Amino acid sequence: MNVEVRRPTIAIVGGGFSGAAVAYHLARLGGPIKVIIYEPRALLGAGLAYGASDPNHRTNVPAAKMSLIPGDEGHFLRWINETGAISDDPDVIGGDGFAYPRRSVFGRYMNEQVRPFVESGAVEHVREPVTAIEKQGNRWTVRSTNTSAHADFVIIATTHPEPRIPSPLLSALEGDPRLIADATLPDALASVQNNDRLLIVGSGLTMADIVATLDAQGHYGKITAISRRGLRSKTHAKSPQEPFGDFSDPLPKSASELLRRTRETIRRAAAQGIPWQAVIDAVRAQAQRFWPALPVAEQRRIVRHLRPYWDVHRFRIAPQPEAIIQKRVNAGVLQFVAASIESLEASTSELEVVLRISKSHRRLARTVDRIILATGPNHGGILSTQPFLKSLSQDGFIHADSLGLGIACDAQGRTIDAQGRPDQSLWIAGPLARAAVGELMGLPQISEFAARVANNVFEAAREYA
């Protein structure tokens, strides 16, 4: 008598880059598994970052450094050359000579890699949001809008949470269309008039996207961009550079040691004509080795004191939006200020904002027509953003990590429950795992971690079967 062996089912919640990459690697591994991915969008792999159609939003790193497949850095660029995906984009080449495609191009690339597995049935795409995840015995029940499925393993690969609205704005402008709280939504900036005076809260890459879109719309009004330190994203090196420096032998034991060694290595690199970008790339590449070895107190110090400086050096701006920003700064219509909002008075015609200058008792008044948030995702509040995460937290299956960056898990991606135990059946993929890994916001690291989670879950499924 033939006995049919039940295939372990792996459910992936979220089909942006992280979730689609995990599904891709699982499907390539093959074997007696069933993969279900939950993503309302039609294109798997595009997600929030690469699903937008705004042609003014470009990848922030050259195409030659973006890839779904770890160890094959040129995979995306070869796909571009084979498909002619950037042939209709006259501005794709930046001032440094590298290609910075529209982000939607990378979304199409991702979808084309995953789609054959969907068409073959190796991956099932459920175009519905997940509403609940419940543990029943040794298995999970995943409920979406109109369906439910049993799974042996669940991988959480949800999108970034929305930005947190600063309290002065929330109390004065809740429900007011003059506050644009999420500029990533389609046509979020369409109502901005060309002569509107704007306050943008945030001065990183999201701000750069906003300014690029507004510039293309013909906006010429004055813009004030604020952040606590007034830092702007740095630019790329003018030529390709190999990572420079060793930050894993010996491992740094404190935040101050890491900072000291980074500064010393930058000075050493400069003496050899090597730009600072190569040193930051070395820190990024080696973070997965030294970060887990740091005491939690030192990790907290890094997140609290060094992270803003890390972000502007690590997440660099593409030449095209940088040129737009510099043009506006030179024209005197874009100003960066290290400040926070102290108070706000809203009349029917305009918004009177008082800014508190950082590390100062000075105040700066601005009269604006609209305020746009560009503060980045509120990762610390992730568990309250979706009902299934909230219920998993209430049931003790997951909890926030100790650094306020996402969900607690180990370096392999296994969630850590309320009792501190790793769960072999519930996993995290993507930036929400970065407290355990260190550097997990850049695409190369997300890609590597997605492959690691896929391999780990696949091995666990083989043992299960």
Describe the structure.
The mean pLDDT is 92. Strand 12 and strand 13 form a beta hairpin. With 465 residues, the chain is an alpha/beta fold. It contains 13 helices and 16 strands. It has helices at residues 17-29, 47-51, 75-83, 103-120, 167-173, 205-217, 255-271, 276-290, 296-314, 319-331, 387-394, 434-437, 443-464; strands at 9-13, 34-38, 123-126, 130-136, 139-144, 148-151, 153-156, 179-180, 198-201, 223-227, 334-346, 351-357, 363-368, 370-373, 414-416, 422-428. Helices cover 35% and strands 18% of the residues. The chain folds into three domains: 9-161 and 379-464, FAD/NAD(P)-binding domain (3-Layer(bba) Sandwich), CATH 3.50.50; 167-234 and 316-373, FAD/NAD(P)-binding domain (3-Layer(bba) Sandwich), CATH 3.50.50.60; 255-314, no CATH class. The longest helix is centred in the C-terminal third of the chain and has 22 residues, at 443-464.
Task: Pick out its properties.
alpha/beta; single chain; 13 helices; 465 residues; FAD/NAD(P)-binding domain; seven-stranded mixed sheet; six-stranded mixed sheet
CATH architecture title of the largest domain: 3-Layer(bba) Sandwich
- Uncertain regions spanning at least 5 consecutive residues: none
- N→C terminal distance: 19 Å
Order of helices and strands: EHEHHHEEEEEHEEHEHHHHEEEEHEEHH
Number of strands: 16
Provide the structure class. alpha/beta
Question: How many domain regions?
Answer: 3
CATH topology of the largest domain: FAD/NAD(P)-binding domain
User: Helix count, per DSSP?
Assistant: 13
Classified by CATH, the class of the largest domain is Alpha Beta
- What is the molecular shape? globular
Overall average residue pLDDT: 92
- Find the CATH superfamily of the largest domain: FAD/NAD(P)-binding domain
Helix fraction bin: 25-40%
From the alpha-carbon coordinates, what is the Rg to the nearest angstrom?
A: 23 Å
The side-by-side strand order for the widest beta sheet comes to 8-14-9-10-11-12-13
Main β sheet profile: 7 strands, mixed
